[in-house]
C-alpha cells in the first residue's frame, strides 16, 4: 500500500480540515471553553456534530452502525484535531474505548456503541496508576463477588474521567501486579456506586481525573472480552491510542510549524523579515524535515495496524516516540521564534506548547516508547 | 496467481540459479564492488558470472527500457526484484555513476542516438563515468564555475580545473559542466560528455581523512571536445548553454541516492550493537533506541517519498530534505557504531577490524553532508523553495 492518502482518504482529509478549521477552531472551542472554566474541557455540542459528520464511528464496524474504516482514517481526523487544538473526547472514546468495545460481546457493544456513534456518549479509559505510563504493572483489583466483581483501587490521568458515561478499566482478576496474564477489562458505567473522581485541570486546559474504586460492584456483563485474558485487548487498545495520539501530535507539530513559518514571513526586525536570517531559516528547514519524517512514521504505523501486521506494535512505538520529539521541537522553536509575543496568552503558539506537553505524557512518552522499540527489537 | 506474484516466483528461481553464493555476502572492501569500464578486472569468477548473468537479463538497470540495455520492468516489478535481491543479500552486479546519475539524465534529456549509444554502454558496464561538477572556487556555489570551453565551430577547446572528481583516475569518460558563455551565469553552462583519454586531461589523487583516495583533482589543458560523436549523438546533453537544467535534474538523483531513500543506510543498529558489544550500559542503550526510532521513521519517510514521487505528489525540492535528514542520520549512526565498538573501533589496520573498517567508514560518512551539496545548502533550498521564506 503506498504511503500516502488514496482519493477517498484525501476527501476525508479535506472534509475534516474544513470542519475542524471552522467548527473546531481555537477561538471557538479551546479558548471559548477554557475562558469559561468549563468543567468538561470540551463542548458537547461539537461532539454531537462529530457524530453528524460520521467521525465518531470511524473505527466501529459497519454491523454495529459504524463506518468500519481504519486507523489511517481515524488519524486523518486526529491530525486536524491536533492542528486546531480542538478539544473533544475523540481519542479516548472513538479510538481507545471503541477499539476495546470492538472486542466485546454483542451485548456490551449494543449497550455502548449507539451512543458513541451519535456523539451523545463520552468514554474514558483508566489504565495508569501513577504519574508515568506503565501498563505492564496493574494493581487495581477486581475480585469475584456473586455473579460479578468488586473493583478496588485507584487510577490516574483518566482523561475526561469526570465527564465520561463509561470508563474502560483495566483491573487484575488474578496473579500479581506485573503479570502478563490475569488482567480483565471492564466497562464501568458512570453511575456505578463507590466510584469517585478527583478532577484536575491540566496544563492544556483539558480535564483528567484521579479515579478511586472503593468496592465498586460490577455485573458479569461489564467484562469486555474474557476474564483474565484482557492483556491482548489492552495492547490492541493501547496501540490504537498510541498511533492515534501520534497522529494528533503530528497535527500539533504542523499547526505550530505553520504558524511559525507564517510569522517568519511577516515579522520585521533590523529592516528585514526575520525569515531572511539564515540562523532562523535553517532551524525552520530542519523542523520541516523532522515533521515530514514523523508524519511518514505515523502513516506507516497506521497502515501496519490496519493490515494486522506483526510489526505494527514496533512501528506504533516508533511513531509515538518520533512524534513526541518532533512536536516538542516544533512548539519550542515556535515560541522562541515568535520572540516575546510567543510568551503571551493572547497568542496561540503557547497553546500548542501546552497541548504537546499533555499529549507527550499520554500513553507513554518518547523515553517509554524508545525503550519499547529496543525491547521489541531484542536488546 | 497475479502477474506480480508469478514475476516474484520467476525472479526467485532466476536468482537461485544465477546468483553465486559468494555474491550473497556483504560487501567488505572496494574489490567486492564491480565498477565495469575499459580496464575492469573481476575479483573472481563468481563476480564475473553474476555480472554477466545480470547484464544479459537487463538486470544491471532493470527499470530501463529493453532497447537501452535494461529489462523494461515496471516500477512494481523493479521493486519485487529489489526485494528478492535484498532477501538473499545479493550484491549489486554493477555499480556506476553512469547508472545512478548520467543514465537518468540521458533518459530525460538525451537524443535517441545518445540513448542508443551511451545507455547501452552503461548497462553493459563498458564505459566507466565520472562527474565533473565541482571546482576549487565553485563548490556550494556551483553555478560560479570557471572551466571554459572556447567555441571553435566543430569543437570546443576546454581549459580549467575540476576537484573532488570521484574515481576520475579510473574513469573512461566524464560528464562535465563547462562554461560556454561568460555573460550569462545560469544560461552559459554546457553539459558535455568526453573521453578522459583525450589529450590534455590529467588527474591527481586527493587523500581523504579516511586514508583512502577515490578522489581526484582533474585538469583540462587545451582539451579538444568535438561537438558531435556521429549522427544524432551530440557531445552535449540538452542544449548548448542550457546545461544547468540538466545538472540540476541530475543533482536531484544524486541527492536521492546519497540520502539512502532506497533504504540503503536506514538500518537500525541497536540489536546489532548489543550483539557485538555484549551488555550495553543504559545510556548507550537509550541512545541506540532513540537512533532506531529515527532510523525506522526515516525508512518510512523513504518509502513514502518514493511512493509520492511515482504519482507526482512529492514537492520537487523534497530530495533536498531527504538528503539532509538521511546524511545527518548516517553520520549519527557511525558515531554510535564507534562508541559501541570502544577501543576496538579505533584500530586502523587490524584484522579484527578488517583493516580499520569501522573507523574509516565513520570518517568517510563525514563527507555525506558535504558531497552532492552540503547540509547547509540543503537547508537553504528547503527554506526558500518549500517554506518560501523571504530573501536571497
Ligand atoms: C517575559 C518577558 C519579560 C520582558 N520584560 C521586559 C522589560 O522588563 N522591559 C523591556 O523593555 N522589555 C521586556 N521584554 C521584551 C523583550 O526584551 C523582547 O521580547 C525581546 O527583546 C525580543 O523582542 P521581540 O519579542 O520583539 O521579538 P523579535 O525581535 O520579533 O524576534 C522574533 C524572533 O526573531 C529572532 N530574530 C530577530 N532578529 C534576528 C536576527 N537579526 N538574527 C536572527 N534571529 C533574529 C529572535 O531571536 C526571535 O526568535 C520582556 C519580554 C518577555 C517575554
Ligand atoms: C567525498 C566527496 C566526494 C565528492 N564527489 C564529487 C564528484 O564526484 N564530482 C563533483 O563534481 N564533486 C564532488 N564532490 C564535491 C562536492 O559536491 C562539494 O565538496 C560540495 O558541493 C561543497 O563544496 P565545497 O567543498 O567547495 O565547500 P564550500 O562551498 O566552500 O562550503 C564550505 C562551507 O560553507 C557552507 N556554505 C557555503 N555556502 C553557504 C550558504 N549559502 N549558506 C550556508 N552555508 C554555506 C557549506 O555548507 C560548508 O559548510 C565531492 C566532495 C566530497 C567531500
TrEMBL record, chain A:
The keyword Cell membrane does not apply. Keywords: FAD, Flavoprotein, Oxidoreductase. Its cofactor is FAD. Residues 140-201 form the Acyl-CoA oxidase/dehydrogenase middle domain. GO terms for molecular function: acyl-CoA dehydrogenase activity; flavin adenine dinucleotide binding. CDD domains: ACAD. The keyword Oxidoreductase applies. Residues 229-375 form the Acyl-CoA dehydrogenase/oxidase C-terminal domain. It comes from the Bacteria. Pfam families: Acyl-CoA_dh_1, Acyl-CoA_dh_M, Acyl-CoA_dh_N. Residues 7-120 form the Acyl-CoA dehydrogenase/oxidase N-terminal domain. InterPro entries: Acyl-CoA_Oxase/DH_mid-dom (IPR006091), Acyl-CoA_Oxase/DH_mid-dom_sf (IPR046373), AcylCo_DH-like_C (IPR036250), AcylCo_DH/oxidase_C (IPR009075), AcylCoA_DH/ox_N (IPR013786), AcylCoA_DH/ox_N_sf (IPR037069), AcylCoA_DH/oxidase_NM_dom_sf (IPR009100). Belongs to the acyl-CoA dehydrogenase family. This is Putative acyl-CoA dehydrogenase. It comes from Erythrobacter litoralis (strain HTCC2594). The lineage of its organism: Bacteria, Pseudomonadati, Pseudomonadota, Alphaproteobacteria, Sphingomonadales.
TrEMBL record, chain B:
Residues 35-126 form the Acyl-CoA dehydrogenase/oxidase N-terminal domain. It holds the Pfam family Acyl-CoA_dh_N. Keywords: FAD, Flavoprotein, Oxidoreductase. Its cofactor is FAD. Residues 130-223 form the Acyl-CoA oxidase/dehydrogenase middle domain. One of its GO terms (molecular function) is flavin adenine dinucleotide binding. InterPro entries: Acyl-CoA_Oxase/DH_mid-dom, Acyl-CoA_Oxase/DH_mid-dom_sf, AcylCo_DH-like_C, AcylCo_DH/oxidase_C, AcylCoA_DH/ox_N, AcylCoA_DH/ox_N_sf, AcylCoA_DH/oxidase_NM_dom_sf, Mycobact_Acyl-CoA_DH. Residues 241-387 form the Acyl-CoA dehydrogenase/oxidase C-terminal domain. GO terms for cellular component: plasma membrane. Belongs to the acyl-CoA dehydrogenase family. This is Possible acyl-CoA dehydrogenase. It comes from Erythrobacter litoralis (strain HTCC2594).
Amino acid at each position: 500500500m503506498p504511503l500516502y492518502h488514496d482519493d477517498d482518504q484525501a476527501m476525508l482529509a479535506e472534509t475534516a480540515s474544513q470542519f475542524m478549521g471552522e467548527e473546531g477552531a481555537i477561538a471557538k472551542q479551546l479558548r471559548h471553553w477554557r475562558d469559561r472554566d468549563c468543567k468538561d474541557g470540551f463542548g458537547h455540542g461539537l461532539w454531537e456534530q462529530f457524530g453528524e459528520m460520521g467521525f465518531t464511528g470511524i473505527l466501529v464496524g459497519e454491523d454495529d452502525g459504524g463506518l468500519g474504516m481504519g486507523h489511517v482514517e481515524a488519524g486523518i481526523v486526529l491530525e486536524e484535531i491536533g492542528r486546531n487544538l480542538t478539544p473533544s473526547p475523540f481519542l479516548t472514546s472513538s479510538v481507545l474505548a471503541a477499539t476495546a468495545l470492538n472486542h466485546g460481546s454483542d451485548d456490551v457493544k449494543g449497550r455502548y456503541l449507539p451512543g458513541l456513534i451519535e456523539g451523545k456518549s463520552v468514554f474514558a479509559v483508566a489504565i495508569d496508576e501513577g504519574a508515568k505510563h506503565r501498563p505492564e504493572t496493574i494493581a487495581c483489583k477486581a475480585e469475584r463477588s456473586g455473579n460479578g466483581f468488586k473493583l478496588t483501587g485507584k487510577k490516574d490521568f483518566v482523561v475526561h474521567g469526570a465527564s465520561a458515561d463509561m470508563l474502560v478499566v483495566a483491573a487484575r482478576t488474578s496473579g500479581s501486579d506485573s503479570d502478563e496474564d490475569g488482567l480483565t477489562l471492564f466497562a464501568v458505567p458512570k453511575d456505578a456506586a463507590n466510584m469517585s473522581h478527583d478532577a484536575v485541570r491540566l496544563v492544556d486546559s483539558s480535564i483528567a481525573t484521579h479515579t478511586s474504586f472503593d468496592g465498586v460492584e460490577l455485573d458479569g456483563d461489564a467484562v469486555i472480552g474474557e476474564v483474565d485474558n484482557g492483556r491482548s485487548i489492552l495492547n490492541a487498545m493501547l496501540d490504537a491510542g498510541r498511533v492515534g495520539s501520534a497522529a494528533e501530535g503530528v497535527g500539533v507539530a504542523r499547526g505550530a510549524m505553520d504558524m511559525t513559518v507564517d510569522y517568519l514571513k511577516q515579522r520585521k526586525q533590523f529592516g528585514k523579515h526575520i525569515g531572511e536570517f539564515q540562523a532562523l531559516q535553517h532551524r525552520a528547514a530542519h523542523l520541516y524535515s523532522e515533521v515530514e519524517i514523523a508524519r511518514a512514521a505515523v502513516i506507516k504505523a497506521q497502515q501496519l495496524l490496519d493490515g494486522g501486521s506483526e510489526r505494527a506494535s514496533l512501528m506504533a512505538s516508533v511513531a509515538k516516540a518520533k512524534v513526541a520529539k518532533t512536536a516538542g521541537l516544533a512548539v519550542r522553536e515556535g515560541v522562541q521564534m515568535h520572540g516575546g509575543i510567543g510568551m503571551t496568552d493572547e497568542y496561540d503558539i503557547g497553546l500548542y506548547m501546552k497541548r504537546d506537553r499533555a499529549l507527550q505524557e499520554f500513553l507513554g512518552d518518547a523515553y517509554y516508547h524508545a525503550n519499547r522499540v529496543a525491547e521489541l527489537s531484542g536488546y | 496467481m497475479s502477474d506480480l506474484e508469478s514475476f516474484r516466483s520467476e525472479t526467485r528461481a532466476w536468482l537461485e540459479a544465477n546468483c553465486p553464493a559468494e555474491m550473497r555476502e556483504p560487501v567488505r572492501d572496494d574489490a567486492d564492488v564491480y565498477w565495469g569500464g575499459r580496464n575492469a578486472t573481476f575479483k573472481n569468477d563468481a563476480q564475473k558470472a553474476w555480472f554477466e548473468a545480470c547484464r544479459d537479463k537487463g538486470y544491471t538497470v532493470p527499470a530501463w527500457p529493453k532497447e537501452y540495455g535494461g529489462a523494461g520492468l515496471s516500477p512494481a516489478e523493479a521493486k519485487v526484484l529489489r526485494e528478492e535481491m535484498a532477501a538473499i543479500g545479493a550484491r549489486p552486479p554493477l555499480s556506476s555513476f553512469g547508472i545512478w546519475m548520467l543514465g537518468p539524465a540521458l533518459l530525460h534529456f538525451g537524443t535517441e542516438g545518445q540513448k542508443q549509444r551511451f545507455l547501452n554502454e552503461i548497462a553493459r558496464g563498458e564505459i566507466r563515468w565520472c562527474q565533473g561538477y565541482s571546482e576549487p572556487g565553485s563548490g556550494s556555489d556551483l553555478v560560479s564555475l570557471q572551466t571554459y570551453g572556447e567555441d571553435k565551430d566543430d569543437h570546443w577547446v576546454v581549459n580549467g580545473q575540476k576537484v573532488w572528481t570521484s574515481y576520475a583516475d579510473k574513469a573512461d569518460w566524464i560528464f562535465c559542466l563547462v562554461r560556454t558563455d561568460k555573460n550569462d551565469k545560469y544560461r552559459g553552462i554546457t553539459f558535455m560528455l568526453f573521453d578522459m583519454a583525450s589529450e590534455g586531461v590529467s588527474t591527481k589523487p586527493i587523500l581523504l581523512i579516511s586514508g583512502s583516495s577515490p578522489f581526484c583533482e582533474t585538469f583540462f589543458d587545451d582539451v579538444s571536445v568535438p561537438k558531435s560523436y556521429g549522427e544524432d549523438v551530440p557531445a552535449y546533453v540538452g542544449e548548448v548553454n542550457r546545461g544547468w537544467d540538466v545538472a540540476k535534474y541530475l543533482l536531484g538523483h544524486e541527492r536521492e541516492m546519497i540520502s539512502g531513500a532506497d533504504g540503503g543506510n536506514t538500518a537500525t543498529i541497536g540489536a546489532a550493537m548489543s550483539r557485538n558489544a555484549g551488555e550495553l550500559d543504559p545510556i548507550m542503550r537509550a541512545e541506540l533506541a532513540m537512533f532506531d526510532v529515527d532510523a525506522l521513521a526515516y525508512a518510512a519517510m523513504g518509502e513514502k517519498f518514493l511512493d509520492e514521487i511515482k504519482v507526482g505528489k512529492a514537492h520537487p525540492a523534497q530530495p533536498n530534505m531527504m538528503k539532509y535528514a538521511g546524511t545527518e542520520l548516517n553520520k549519527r549512526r557511525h558515531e554510535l557504531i564507534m562508541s559501541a565498538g570502544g577501543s576496538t573501533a579505533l584500530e586502523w589496520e587490524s584484522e579484527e577490524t578488517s583493516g580499520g573498517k569501522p573507523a574509516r567508514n565513520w570518517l568517510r560518512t563525514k563527507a555525506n553532508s558535504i558531497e552532492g551539496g552540503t547540509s547547509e545548502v540543503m537547508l537553504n533550498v528547503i527554506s526558500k523553495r518549500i517554506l518560501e521564506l523571504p530573501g536571497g
